[in-house]
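Repro case for the chain-ordering regression, as requested:
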Amino acid sequence: MVDQSTDPSPALVTVSNVKKYFPVNSRGILQRNAQYVRAVDDVSFTIKRGETLGLVGESGSGKSTLGRCIVQLHKQTEGQIKFDGVELSTLGNKEMRTMRRRINMIFQDPYSSLSPRMTAGGIIGEPIEIHKLTGSSAEVRDRVEELLRIVGLNPYMADRYPHEFSGGQRQRIGIARAIAAEPEFIVADEPVSALDVSIQAQVINLMQDLQERFNLTYLLIAHDLSVVRHISDRVAVMYLGKLMEIAPCDDLYETPLHPYTQALLSAVPVPDPKVELEREHIVLQGDIPSPISPPSGCVFHTRCPIAVAECAMTVPPLREVAPGHMTACLRVGPDAI
Ligand SMILES: Nc1ncnc2c1ncn2[C@@H]1O[C@H](COP(=O)(O)OP(=O)(O)OP(=O)(O)O)[C@@H](O)[C@H]1O
Ligand code: SF4
Ligand SMILES: [Mg+2]
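-- result from build under test --
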């Protein structure tokens, strides 16, 4: 974890004004009135080396699309993504291959993200071979066995196929593969949400141990706010392709400033039944609007419990309202309306 208040190191990842628009149909690009899904719409933030940034928001808010843009599985429509000072979209194929060693992704469903016809050893060894990190096949085998041990599996399991493992073990294989080429930064997209609750903590703890051991930097995408709280240094909240709030973890959970964050957190049950009964629950009205034609002004205005007329006209900028605590709401901050 990184001490935000004293750490002067530059950002490892810098996301600036990133947009990702998907054409609604393949002919759409050529039509004058082409329609787009605005999956990510002008998002900016940074992640420091060694830090975990949690990314939360309802289904369809653009979290996975943003994660995929950062690892360049999607090319962003607009904006810049810099890794260690290098703008990724300007890299040629060869340079990008080298960069791919430093950046990796862990996916939600360990079953569908692992090839069923490859052994665990083949799956974990593939990146080592692609990046030519060891010479002989015996060295690859040694490294695979070391990686299996690192993620808490037995080296003899290298010859088994994915269907022979439990869900939690499969995710450990996914993690071993992700760290095989010794990356610096990992985007983990819902890494534990397909797992039994009893297994989730083990996998999150493994991720934390690996972070300390290898000085990893994480973007952790999750809809479970308690998982995010457990592991994140800072948390960012997305709604309809936009960042609503970003703050140090405890600030966000203890003093959420954006009405959307407040609503998300009020839906998380509190363990103490007395507190749970007495506290205020904010129920958001209506569904998430379509990202093809998002609401004008503040995209949250159609569901916001404190919206005023101005909210439908002005896009609220993301502003720092307390040290390190940024939010995008016209009704929060020194000149709140
Ligand atoms: N390849 C694609 N083509 C067209 N639209 C897409 C594509 N990928 C995502 N979208 C759309 O972009 C929006 C954001 O999707 P995304 O998967 O990024 O959301 P998410 O926050 O990860 O949701 P979830 O919590 O359900 O995983 C959605 O409206 C989705 O339908
Ligand atoms: S800008 Fe207006 S609609 Fe948007 S969150 Fe703030 S009060 Fe609600
Ligand atoms: Mg997703």
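Ordering looks correct now. Residues 259, 298, 300-301, 304, 306-307, 311, 316, 329-331 surround iron/sulfur cluster (ligand 2) (CB under 6 Å).
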